[in-house]
Each structure stands twice: as structure tokens, then as C-alpha cells.
Amino acid sequence: MELEAVDLKAEMQRIGARIEARLDALLAPAQGDRGRVVEAMRYSALGGGKRLRPFLVIETASLFDVPAEMAERAAAAVEMIHCYSLIHDDLPAMDDSDLRRGRPSAHKAFDEATAILAGDGLLTEAFTVLAHEATHTDPSVRCRLVAELAEAAGQAGMVGGQMMDILGEGHPMTLEQISQMESLKTGALIRVAARFGGVLASQNSDIVATLDQYGRDLGLAFQIADDLLDAEASAEDLGKPVGQDAALGKATFVSLLGAEEARRRAGDLAERAAGRMASFGPKAGALQALARYVVERKG
Amino acid sequence: MELEAVDLKAEMQRIGARIEARLDALLAPAQGDRGRVVEAMRYSALGGGKRLRPFLVIETASLFDVPAEMAERAAAAVEMIHCYSLIHDDLPAMDDSDLRRGRPSAHKAFDEATAILAGDGLLTEAFTVLAHEATHTDPSVRCRLVAELAEAAGQAGMVGGQMMDILGEGHPMTLEQISQMESLKTGALIRVAARFGGVLASQNSDIVATLDQYGRDLGLAFQIADDLLDAEASAEDLGKPVGQDAALGKATFVSLLGAEEARRRAGDLAERAAGRMASFGPKAGALQALARYVVERKG
After folding, report:
1. Which of B82, B92, B18 is nearest to B222 (CA)?
2. Do A37 and B112 touch (CB under 8 A)?
3. Most buried one in A46, A168, A179, A253, CB count within 10 A?
4. Computed from CA positions of residues B127, B132, B136, B142, in that sequence, does the dihedral angle turn out positive or negative?
């Protein structure tokens, strides 16, 4: 357990550096007035974040020996979608959040118009990356990556979940409603990141389903842990404002279950996620360690 | 000329109805809180617009006898991108426009958060549609459609052009700068719409280049004509506010060239676009008529 935790940290840093370099190369600066939106895209995509979703793509891809470039490109596309969603969620008309990853959020560092466009640009660029032949030699695999990412990101996934979250501010949600909202808002993208290794390697539907279930359990554990952190951690630890849920009168897993029960559920989900990876043997060690880490982290 | 104009109007109405039905089917209403964002996507995508870009996809596809369903799906994807860009451009932080197609713009009919999400949803849905096998039997063609649409929509296209347009409010642009801005902001998507017929039919690069050049000339003619309408037409004719460019102190083709020279250039571009279609014979009649129509229209 101690050894796993140390290895995981090193593995996350190693993969984080690869993703940083890949994003840096994919988002090349542009000249002229257009350069400003690319600068904002780079500001939001580079230099920070846990890179949880890229880590899932890279690690599930490594179960099946997918070449590094393909895995990194798919991982970068998923991270672009994540970063776009953070930019738009932080906007004054949405969650109105001025701080992100310990820095001013995009609309504060630039301006609202530039932030909206930077989000649009990252969302679009993700599909440019996936459709390119460098991402996979088989175009039917590339189409599947595009289709799965678009579904996870769109109105049936992340966009729909954010809509539910915003409307939930007006009428505090039940546990079932929160679970459904989170499964769309954050769960769908985490699941697709976990699936991508299997999709890149053209694995059968049973294997992709196992990866999907791992991602589902992990994503929910992650979200419950996030609620616990929002309720208990300091802004300095998190690099973003805390206590926001309570301030907005939002129901959360913690407010509905209590901290103790929420922590117990997150732990159970993490163990179940780790258990699902057992059949992949030692190669899945980092994915198992990750499941335990997401509920134990302090930021 | 008279006959062409009558035929074009009927053809545009016929294709507009097919696109309306296709978008209606692709954007099925959703239940629950998530339904609100889908409602806003439908509000913005259905019930209006000239459907210029879908018309280009359908008509260029018909040059090569592409099956109707494939052409309509590709056309609907392009129109989703166009509609998303209108929603986001109209936002208070961008052009702050309350009227669109004679109705309240999305953030007035709903609210800002819902409008941002509806734009995000339409942008994402376009790629869901293109990646689906119903759009083309050959996955390499579907990947190419995704790649070309993403490039036209992203920071190297529409997003970059909108950034240039916004920054241009601060320092009035030269003719060269306006041409470059418009070629990204509106030109890139019109060009890709014209190319799509050739891409769907796997035509050689010479033919796709001819379609591209037609789209480039048509797009620029369209934009110059738009500037003339903004300077001269009434809000009732256009279904959106007029005189906005002058009010914002923006340089336009009309302010830089004068109305007479702008009208002459638009006419020349339209004739050149029409001429490029001559080699395709009678099947290209509607595309030729369209080129002339965009500079003669009153709204």
C-alpha cells in the first residue's frame, strides 16, 4: 500500500509530463489577433491539473500495449474536453468562479469573450486530434473515438450534467438526482477515458465494459471525495474556492449522506473499482492504486 | 435569369424543409432538467435561417449522386456548427445581440448559462452526427469530414475569426485584415460546406479544390453583401439589428470601399464563383444561381 502510493505518484508525474508536452505541441501558438485565443487555450490546458483523465487513457492503453503516440494523442483530446468544460463552467453566467488550479480562471486572466472562445476552441481541437491518422491507423477506430468522446461531452453527457447542476441550485436535489447529475457532468468523461485504452486496442465488448465499470465506480468515488474536500479542505490545498456548495445551498453527497457515510461509500466504490482491474494482472497496478488514491487525496 | 431565380427559391425551400426535418430528428427532445439545454439547442437550430451552408452541402453532393441521407446528415452537422456560432456570438460578452432570425436570441429566450451550454451542445453534436456510420459507409471519409469541419470551426477558422473580429472593435482594420478575418469567421465554414459534396463522393483533389474556390468566392461575396445589407436594409427585412457595424465603429468592406465599389466586387466574385461551376454542367445550375442570389438578396 505504501509502495503503491509512492509508485503512483511517480507514475502520475511521469504521465503528466508526457501529456503536458503533447498538449504543448498540439496547441502551437498562433500569430496576430487570432493568437490571443490560442494563448487562452494554452493558459487553460497547460501547466497544471492532476491529469486524471489522460492518466486513465494512458494506463488503460498500456494494458494492451497501444503505441505511446496514439495513447498520448487520445489522452490529450480527452484533457482538452475537460479543460474546455472548466473554462465554461467558471464563467460568470455559470459557476462564476475566479480561481482555478491556484491561478485566475480564464475569464479573469483574459476576458469573458476570449474565455468563451478558448473553450469553444479546445472543444473543437479535441476532434481535430482524434480524427487525425496519427491517432490510429484504422479510421474506424478513430471514428469510434470521436463518437464516444462526443457523446460523453454533449447533451447526453457533460453538457446535460452541467445543465442539471445549474438548475439544481434552485431546487436542492435528492441523492438519486445528484447521482444522475454527477454521472453525466463528471462521470461520462472519466468513463470514456477509461474505455479509450480498450477502444484504441480494438478489444472486445466485455473488456471495454469492464473498463467502463471501473471508470464509473472511480468517477463516482472521485466525485464523493470532491464533495468531502469542498466541505473540509482549505482553498490553499485545493487551488480553488471551497465551501461553494454550501454557500450556494446545493445538495451534495456530503450534505445528504453525512461525511462519515459519504467517506464509507467512496471507499467501497474505490475498492470495487480496484477489484475490477484484478483480471488484468500486474500491469493494472497503477489503475488499482489510482482508485484508492482518489478517495485518500487531500487536494 | 428570371427562371433561375424562381427555381433557386423553390430549391432552397425544398432543401430547407429537408434540413429542418433532419435536424428535428437528430435533436430529439430529452426528459428532465437536461431537457432544457436540448430545448435551447432546438430553439436555435430549428425554424429559421436561409440554410445556406446545408444548401451547399446538398447541392455539391448532388453533383456526384451522393445518397440523400448521407448528404443531409453532413449538411445538418455543418448547420449545427453555424447555429452554435450564432448563439455564442450573440452572448452579452461577445456581440451582445438580442435579436436573431426575427426572434429573441438564445440567451434572451432562455438565459446566458443555458445559451452557452446549448452552443457547446450543438458544437459537440455535429461530431456525433459525422462520426456515425449512417453518414458514410467508409470510416476514412467520416474521419475526413470530422477533420475538415473541426479545422473550419476551430481556432484556425471560425473561432479565430471571431477573436479577430472582437479585437478589431478596438482598432479599425485595414481591407486586408478584414478580408483575413472574414475568411476565417464566415469563409472557412462556407468553404467546407462546398467541399463536403466532393469529400462525401471521394472526388479527386482537383475537384475538391474547385469546390473550395467556389466556396471561397461565394463566401466573400456573401460577406460583402451582408455588410451592404447592414448599412442599408431595415431591421424588419433582416430579422436582426442593423447599423451595428457603424455603431461599434467597426471597419467593414462598405466603410473602406464605399457602397458602389463593394457592390461591384461582390458582383465580380459571384460571377467568378458561378463560372467555376460551369464544368459540372446543368446539375450545377442551382449553385450558379445561388452565387448570383447572395449578392442580390434583400435579407
Report:
1. B82
2. no
3. A253
4. positive
What's the total number of domains in chain A?
Answer: 1
* Interface membership of B203 toward A (CB under 8 Å): no
* Count of C-beta atoms within a 10 Å radius of residue A109: 17
Closest residue on chain B to A135 (Cα): B143
The CA-based angle B22-B27-B29, given to 5 degrees, is: 130
pTM of this structure: 0.95
Q: Integer distance in angstroms from the first to the last C-alpha of chain B?
A: 19
* CB of A230 closer than 8 Å to CB of A258: no
Q: Do residue A164 and residue B139 have CB atoms under 8 angstroms apart?
A: no
Structure confidence by residue, pLDDT tens digits, A169-200: 777 789 999 999 999 999 999 999 999 999 99
Q: Select the residue from B23, B26, B120, B151 to test the A interface by mutation, using most A Cβ atoms within 10 A.
A: B120
Per-residue pLDDT reduced to its tens digit, A60-91: 999 999 999 999 999 999 999 999 999 999 99
Write the CATH number for B40: 1.10.600.10
Helix (H, G, I), strand (E, B) or coil at A167: helix
Q: What pLDDT score does B3 carry?
A: 47
pLDDT tens digits, residue range B166-217? 998 777 789 999 999 999 999 999 999 999 999 999 999 999 999 999 999 9
Tell me the residue range of the domain where B194 lies: 2-296
